[in-house]
């Protein structure tokens, strides 16, 4: 089955063509027009600016994606009564910015009507999760790198992006249960706000991660899951930076990152020399987030007897998070497979939307184009 994916929920205009077969999809094209450079100067996404850019970019992005898929195809081709070579159109309908989502949805409606191809409405978070079903080199804690995809349920999925931080229990395709979520800021949002405080640019995650890499004598003790992960100390020029690990010992699987952000602010206010130690602050902030995410995910995987742990969302691009997850999973849950999407499918992209669309189309979960609606607060 060939699926065209369209994603415009935030600040990336993206279209992809994937081919789905049994339990995985192959990406045939994945085109992303990023607006990061435009929003950088404002320190975050400006919805009105994002909306205008989507309108300008959506048709060229879809056309390029179709051309990469097959040089003879474009939006305006007539195909001389031949069936258009696409079986379904998958489009993000929420959650996200209303003024951004609408461009993708209206385009999908038009193409569905013009080409007479059914549409699948995709939840953006479900899309991030289905990045794990894209055929690529999957990191497996027991077999190092695997070429083939093997998904085993139940799966515990850590979904961490700029808008969401959730632990999801997946018991089969389309069967999701949220078992924990953030009570305030999302993990990516915390990275972005911390980076703003440190004056190191937007988006914050990659900026913090790059600066944290510069700290060579950073000592991190992600302890055994049975002990508290409390110690992540930094001993640079004899001064210690220690930030809290919010809710790490909580009985539930919820998260909270706004206290961590406030703790960083207080630490910076007290430290007259903080500008000289930005990489150290980055390393400690990053480690505090990682400790909480890993601890809670492994605890959930144990509780629900998960066969696989999956990571999803922009924050799962974090190198240290990926490395430490691999280490901790193999050490503490040797029978559980850890699946991490290829780096290029962690941040917003249409291939993940097409992937989720393929699995929904297989179950005949289509939405007539007349009934497609934006839902900014769509739940999983
Ligand atoms: O999934 P995504 O592209 O968009 C949303 O759906 O929100 O995630 C974007 C978020 C941003 O907050 C960004 O700072 C964060 O993902 N991010 C990272 C890294 N790369 C992107 N956070 C930590 N480390 C990274 N390497
Ligand atoms: Zn996203």
UniProtKB/TrEMBL annotation:
It catalyses: L-threonylcarbamoyladenylate + adenosine(37) in tRNA = N(6)-L-threonylcarbamoyladenosine(37) in tRNA + AMP + H(+). Substrate binds at residues 159-163, 192, 205, 318. Keywords: Acyltransferase, Cytoplasm, Iron, Metal-binding, Transferase, tRNA processing. Residues 27-354 form the Gcp-like domain. Gene3D superfamilies: 3.30.420.40. It comes from the Bacteria. InterPro entries: ATPase_NBD, Gcp-like_dom, KAE1/TsaD, Peptidase_M22_CS, TsaD. Binds 1 Fe(2+) ion per subunit. PANTHER family: TRNA N6-ADENOSINE THREONYLCARBAMOYLTRANSFERASE, TRNA N6-ADENOSINE THREONYLCARBAMOYLTRANSFERASE, MITOCHONDRIAL. This is tRNA N6-adenosine threonylcarbamoyltransferase. It comes from Candidatus Falkowbacteria bacterium GW2011_GWE1_38_31. The gene is tsaD.
């Amino acid at each position: 089955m060939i699926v065209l994916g369209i994603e415009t929920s935030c600040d990336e205009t993206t279209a992809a063509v994937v081919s789905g077969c049994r339990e995985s999809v192959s990406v045939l094209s994945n085109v992303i027009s990023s607006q990061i450079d435009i929003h950088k100067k404002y320190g975050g996404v400006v919805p009105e600016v994002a909306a205008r850019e989507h309108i300008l970019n959506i048709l060229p992005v879809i056309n390029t994606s179709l051309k990469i898929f097959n040089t003879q195809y474009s939006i305006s081709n007539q195909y001389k009564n031949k069936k258009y070579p696409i079986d379904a159109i998958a489009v993000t309908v929420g959650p996200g910015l209303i003024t951004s989502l609408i461009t993708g949805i209206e385009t999908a409606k038009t193409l569905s009507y013009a080409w007479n191809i059914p549409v699948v409405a995709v939840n953006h978070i479900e899309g991030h999760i289905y990045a794990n079903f894209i055929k690529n080199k999957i990191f497996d804690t027991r077999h190092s790198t695997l070429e083939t995809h093997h998904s085993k349920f139940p799966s515990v999925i850590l979904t961490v992006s700029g808008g969401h931080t959730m632990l999801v229990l997946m018991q089969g395709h389309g069967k999701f249960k949220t078992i924990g979520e953030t009570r305030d800021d999302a993990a990516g949002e915390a990275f972005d706000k911390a980076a703003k405080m440190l004056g190191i640019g937007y988006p914050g995650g990659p900026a913090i991660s790059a600066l944290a890499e510069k700290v060579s004598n950073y000592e991190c003790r992600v302890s055994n899951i049975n002990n508290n992960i409390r110690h992540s100390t930094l001993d640079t020029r004899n001064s210690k930076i220690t930030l809290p690990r919010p809710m790490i010992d909580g009985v539930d699987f919820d998260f909270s990152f706004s206290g961590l952000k406030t703790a960083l602010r207080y630490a910076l206010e007290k430290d007259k020399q903080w500008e000289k130690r930005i990489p150290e602050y980055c390393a400690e902030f990053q480690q505090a987030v990682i400790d909480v995410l890993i601890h809670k995910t492994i605890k959930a995987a144990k509780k629900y007897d998960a066969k696989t742990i999956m990571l999803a969302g922009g924050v799962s691009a974090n190198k240290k998070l990926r490395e430490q997850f691999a280490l901790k999973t193999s050490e503490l849950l040797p029978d559980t497979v850890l699946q991490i999407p290829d780096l290029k499918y962690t941040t917003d992209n249409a291939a993940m939307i097409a992937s989720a669309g393929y699995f929904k189309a297989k179950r005949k979960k289509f939405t007539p184009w007349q009934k497609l609606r934006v839902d900014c607060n769509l739940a999983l």
